[in-house]
Amino acid sequence: MVLLIIGVLLTCAAGRGLGSVEMVYSLPSAVKEAGLSTVALQLPFESAVTVWEATSSAQDHRKAFTQMLCEHIHRHFSIKLSSMTLVRISTPVLHAEGTGRIKVKVHSYSDLLHVMLLFPLAL
User: Cα 119 to the chain's mean position, in Å?
Assistant: First the structure.
């Protein structure tokens, strides 16, 4: 469910000068026993949009976006996000969890209309 909402999260806040996109991953159980349960990544909003647009020609746009981020994080930090589970992604406008819970934070009527129009496109 989280992957289905990535496009809406990025599109809804486009051009508003918003801060960041946060992606939270759950770690495998072997690591959880050591006391670490999640890894949170915060990307500048402009960088996330750049990656989203760079993957727009891919057949499965959402998976290409996630794969590109995973490769980048692995190359720079030696962290394999592909072995973790994406449990939450959020922007200042929308918050989506892997459980299917979606929280919309609108500040105006136009924000609400924008979210309502784009949400079906993500599904």
Answer: 14
